[in-house]
Amino acid sequence: MNELLTLTAAELGKRIAARQISSEEVTRAHLDRIDDVDGDIRAFLLVNHDGALDTARRIDARIADGEYLGPLAGVPLAVKDLFCAKGLATTASSRMLEGWVPPYDSTIVTRCKDAGMVILGKTNLDEFAMGSSTETSAFGPTHNPWDLERVPGGSGGGSAASLASFQAPLALGTDTGGSIRQPGAVTGTVGIKPTYGSTSRYGVIAMASSLDTPGPCARTVLDAALLHEAIAGHDAMDQTTIDQPTPTVVEAARQADVTGMRVGVVTELAGDGYDPQVEARFHEAVEMLTDAGAEVVEVSCPNFDLALPAYYLIQPAEVSSNLARYDAMRYGLRINDDGEHSAEQVMRATRGAGFGAEAKRRIMLGTYALSAGYYDAYYGSAQKVRTLIQRDFEKAWQTCDVLVSPATPTTAFRLGERTADPMAMYRSDLCTIPANMAGGPAGSFPIGLSGADGMPVGMQVMAPVMADDRVYRVGAALERLLNEKWGAPLLAKVPELRGER
């Protein structure tokens, strides 16, 4: 494998800026890698081959003229196919938007372009980001690079798999209930959900508007922090964005020191339903933090047990509202548009053909929860639980700087194993949902491999609203401690790199 593929994004940016290597050769190496392995992984829905090389050449020319464009200038980037990118088909992995090409960029794509990043293509996801395995994509599932018979997590499995298979050094994702962190955990990569409102949703296809949070995906903590810094900040086009300075995430990632930090272990995020190997790696990581100077205590957040059922009322309700726009009248798929069928018939046929089973399930759940006579009993009650979860966090912050838990209850499961059991699938997000309900930042960081199946395990770190730097500080410390223990980054253990596939 080309050695350029194994360099971190930070190192690539430094070498490109110093003209030791060119963005064009780095980009070409990643495009060649996509050609070589993505037939097996299926991380990408669209590869921006010519556009990426054109951008790389322009970046090289600007650098040759003496411009400094930032630490990630010239570095390739994979983009989850929820972000609108002008001139590139954006489908949300749904037949409903198959072939749709947006006429504008999302704010975050614009910021990545302004920072000089090179868009490699659009990555696969669960349809409209609804799922925990990337199996609900209308265009087929993505495979986990650690084991091609297993899922890469979801909804952003394509972005995570592109990183773990060394097809991209950086990727964009969105996290509504764990869609960045859960794929990060099961692929051995880093996934960060920033504070809700600290990254713009403008131009990101909406699923659940009070929960959706764009964020960075990477192979190292510093790389994630550099991407986070590039995309975060207030946006006049998104009224939910926070008009405050971005936390010092890059500085925190470079610090990698937990001395004196108070770390709370959430007692509710453990026990029945958790893989013993996941819990074993988690407790080993907690011990490493203790040895590194952190003060570790147990913290009870009793309402976290209610997060999963509350989320699966709030999220489908917002799905029902947001997906109502796909009515076959304005854009996207249109079935039976032959002049012989009424608008109602066209709409019914289009929505029946355009949405997959999981999307339909959540639309129906949400519509029911919002219906007259049931709103207070379901949606209203779920919002009250959300407030209780927020209060659990507020109480925890009185005694702790961060909270930690396993990022997922299990390692990556096999493709097809949970597709017929929605509740088993939903439980994949058991650990990650509380942070979305409260709006605070959280990240998943690799902490080792399961002794049972050899698959990656992740630790989740949660922090108060706009204290994203704490997540990076703990994550960087974990990364340093694990690298010291293993003698190499965890992804050096991917079977292909060891010559086992």
Automatic annotation (TrEMBL):
A GO term from the CC aspect: glutamyl-tRNA(Gln) amidotransferase complex
Residues at the active site: K80 (charge relay system), S155 (charge relay system), S179 (acyl-ester intermediate)
GO biological process, one term: translation
Domain annotation Amidase: ranges: 25-471
Catalytic activity line of the entry: L-glutamyl-tRNA(Gln) + L-glutamine + ATP + H2O = L-glutaminyl-tRNA(Gln) + L-glutamate + ADP + phosphate + H(+)
Enzyme Commission no: 6.3.5.7
UniProtKB keywords: ATP-binding, Ligase, Nucleotide-binding, Protein biosynthesis
Pfam families, per the entry: Amidase (PF01425)
MF annotations from Gene Ontology: ATP binding; glutaminyl-tRNA synthase (glutamine-hydrolyzing) activity
Record family assignment: Belongs to the amidase family. GatA subfamily.
PANTHER family: GLUTAMYL-TRNA(GLN) AMIDOTRANSFERASE SUBUNIT A, TRANSAMIDASE
Subunit structure: Heterotrimer of A, B and C subunits.
Function: Allows the formation of correctly charged Gln-tRNA(Gln) through the transamidation of misacylated Glu-tRNA(Gln) in organisms which lack glutaminyl-tRNA synthetase. The reaction takes place in the presence of glutamine and ATP through an activated gamma-phospho-Glu-tRNA(Gln).
Protein name, as recorded: Glutamyl-tRNA(Gln) amidotransferase subunit A
Gene: gatA
